[in-house]
Specification:
Length: 624
């Protein structure tokens, strides 16, 4: 082979090697450039993101929920308590396959269909970074079993928290309400930072009204954790501020006595201390156990309560709106005295009916044969309708509405129990605005005996009766008496609102209260069956129609379905000369107030005042 040919081959080889080296160098440089660019992106653009992730592997900030304030009755009996509970929570954001994770957890601890249903519902109400409870009330054994396998479940934790409990169950459900898991609607309206780590909020009654006092303020702790999430040490902490304890006017023994006095009847009892406006008892029956609601009641159980014909979830004491019937007559009588329309001696003749001037329609009295000539005292004692037809007509609806409003009718009383309704005192303006109709004089008569569109709650009747017992001094009713900051030596009294209504003179108050006393004390009184040898009672019976009778119809309870029978009402205060308790009772579809509702009130007053002796064979009076 010639020398020049060999040299040419070697030059081609060098060129080929050089070209390959250049290509390789370019590829290496390109790869290095990609690595550099990626590193730059990670170090610069994504630095904050990965720094947080890295730090989260080592340091976590955990909210520390406050303990909820306790609730005590007037004698220090615990009505709402807290007990420790463990729940299994899943942070959805940290779980890749949620369904598979739940199935794997179910192999370690019990997870039933109700748990899965509740989890699905709550998951839709929470943001992804918040824990959602899968199982509640774990046993110590279940906590231990999960702890052994916890490394297999990132994003799943056992959470310890204090759970609300109500030792007296149904007795206090309507007055205290209950706490429950925060739903999405509530989440949209609360300060989420104040509820960090807290899953519960007041849902009704005192719990909801005084949420700001009972809840407290959340704290936090910054902790160092290892790769498995176990806390190694606390780096920084701010302690939560526990909620304030509430001390109530309510007396649980009286609450129980009022509940038992109602027996198996549907109805409500409200008892108030006239001297303070403190609510001593507030009963709505039937009731329900609030404890299952705390952590989430099952759908079947909730629907059974919701659709029960007896409406156990309905707070009749503050939301039940009933025609007050003849229980309103003392207040109409006061209006007549204070306005100068009548006086204690002025009589009205009752032939058993009343006709407006120039009209032929008869407005009937409950006694078909009439009461004859009656003045205020006799009209109250025998509950004469005609007397109050005439008085209401002479007052006129506007004056009548104003005087009744002074006692608290037609407006919320301001009680610290969530959900109160206002009732209704109808008027000319109301009818034109709501029904687009004119007001007729006959409607004024019907208002004068507490029927028609006139509606009042049992609470309003109790407050009005307490105001009358106070001779015109109105106290806004209060369930909570004082709040105590944790660690404070004594509780601080909560503010009380009071005012004087349009005042009658002392003689007029004496005359009215004496007449109410005779409702019970007189042999002809409609409540003579509850006369006591231990103290004197001032009261007024009432019967509220569920439906209106036709012109020629007569009322026969035996032929009516129970739900169509009249409601029985009674209002009273005692002792009559030094009132310490005012009571309002309604027994739904109970019939006559004197024979059904009045004995309930008597049992409540006996429980509070210590009485027990009835007058021998008092008999039963006619009327309502």
């Amino acid at each position: 082979m010639r020398l020049d040919s060999i040299l040419a081959d070697r030059q081609r080889e060098w060129r080929l090697v050089g070209a390959r080296a250049i290509v390789a160098a370019v590829l290496v440089l390109a790869a290095l450039s990609l690595v550099v660019v990626r590193l730059a992106h990670l170090q610069i653009a994504d630095h904050e993101h990965f720094s947080v992730l890295s730090q989260d592997n080592r340091v976590k900030v955990q909210p520390v929920p406050p303990s909820r304030g306790l609730i005590y009755d007037a004698k220090g009996v615990v009505l709402a308590d807290n007990h420790p509970s463990f729940s299994l929570e899943i942070t959805v954001e940290k779980v890749e396959n949620l369904s598979a994770t739940i199935d794997a957890l179910a192999a370690i601890i019990r997870v039933d269909d109700k748990d899965r249903e509740r989890f699905k519902r709550l998951k839709g109400q929470r943001v992804r970074f918040q824990g959602v409870p899968l199982r509640l009330n774990l046993t110590p054994e279940e906590v231990a079993r999960f702890s052994l396998d916890s490394y297999r479940f990132p994003g799943v934790d056992v959470r310890a928290e204090l759970i609300r409990s109500y030792p007296h169950g149904e007795l206090t459900a309507h007055v205290l309400g209950y706490v429950g898991r925060i739903n999405q609607e509530e989440m949209d309206h609360i300060d989420t930072s104040a509820y960090a780590g807290t899953h519960f909020i007041g849902k009704g009654g005192v719990e909801k009204y005084h949420e700001g006092l009972l809840h407290g303020q959340a704290g936090y702790q910054q902790v160092e954790v290892n790769a498995r999430g176990r806390v190694l040490r606390t780096l920084e902490a701010k302690s939560p501020v526990a909620g304030q304890d509430l001390h109530l006017f309510l007396d649980i023994a009286l609450q129980r006595a009022a509940t038992e006095a109602l027996g198996d009847n549907r109805g409500a009892v409200v008892a108030i201390d006239p001297r303070t406006g403190g609510v001593l008892a507030l009963v709505s029956k039937p009731s329900f156990d609030p404890n299952p609601f705390v952590e989430g009641i099952g759908s079947a159980d909730y629907h059974a309560l919701l659709y029960s014909p007896d409406k156990p979830l309905y707070n009749r004491a503050v939301r039940g709106q009933y025609p007050p019937g003849s229980t309103v007559k003392p207040f109409v009588g006061f209006a007549g005295l204070a306005a100068g329309v009548t006086n204690a001696r002025k009589t009205t003749y009752c032939p058993g009916y009343y006709r407006l001037p120039g009209q032929s329609h008869s407005y009937r009295c409950w006694r078909r044969g009439g009461h004859g000539a009656v003045a205020l005292e006799a009209a109250l004692v025998q509950s004469c309708d005609v007397y109050f037809y005439v008085l209401a007509h002479e007052l006129g609806i506007e004056r009548l509405k104003d005087y009744l409003g002074g006692f608290g009718f037609g407006a919320r009383t301001g009680i610290d129990v969530a959900g109160e309704l206002s009732g209704l005192v109808p008027s000319r303006e109301w009818k034109e605005r709501v029904r687009k109709q004119l007001w007729y004089p006959g409607e004024t008569l019907i208002v004068g005996i507490g029927q028609g569109a006139f509606l009042a709650t049992p609470l309003q009747l109790a407050v009005a009766t307490a105001t009358l017992a106070n001779r015109g001094h109105f106290f806004a009713p209060r369930v909570a008496r004082a709040a105590q900051v944790p660690g404070a030596p004594r509780a601080q009294e909560l503010p009380v609102f009071s005012r004087a209504i349009a005042a009658g003179d002392a003689t007029q108050w004496d005359q009215l209260i004496h007449a109410m006393t005779q409702v019970v004390e007189s042999p002809r009184g409609t409540a003579k069956g509850i006369r006591s040898r231990d103290y004197r009672i001032a009261g007024k019976t009432g019967t509220a129609q569920v439906f209106t009778l036709g012109k020629n119809q007569t009322y026969n309870a035996a032929r009516l379905a129970e739900t169509m029978r009249d409601h029985a009402l009674f209002v009273a205060f005692a002792p009559a000369d030094d009132p310490r308790i005012a009571v309002a009772v309604i027994v739904e579809n109970g019939g006559h107030g004197g024979t059904v509702a009045a004995p309930v009130a008597r049992k409540v007053m006996d429980a509070w005042l210590g009485g027990s002796t009835l007058i021998d064979d008092p008999g039963v009076a006619d009327g309502d």
